[in-house]
Amino acid sequence: MEDLGAESKFTKFPAVVHLGDWSFFLVQSKGRYKLFSNICPHAGSEVVDWGTTFMCPSHGWRFEQDGGECINGPIARMMAYEVTARNGHLFADVPLEEFA
Ligand code: FES
Questions:
Q1: In 3D, which of 21, 18, 19, 62 has the Cα closest to residue 40?
Q2: What is the pTM (predicted TM-score) of this model?
Q3: Which of the chain's ends, N or C, has fewer CB atoms near its CB within 10 Å?
């Protein structure tokens, strides 16, 4: 489990979170947190926050921010990881060793 820090420090969503050399988006939806990898599921470019969606600048795929599903391309989804709140901190179940 990766400690994302104090829950209280996250006041705007999506929030960019850095773990090791990798970047993620923390989102909050329906009272639950979720962490999305910013690595595009198409060809590995970096997905950016595009207002109401996420967007990959390489080929324009866009992803909805609740579940990370692609909304303008083939069936695809951003990698998502569960986040739990415990003792005022957020913890994400991210297998960072698989990102190398
Ligand atoms: S690499 Fe992201 S849309 Fe192609």
A1: 62
A2: 0.94
A3: C
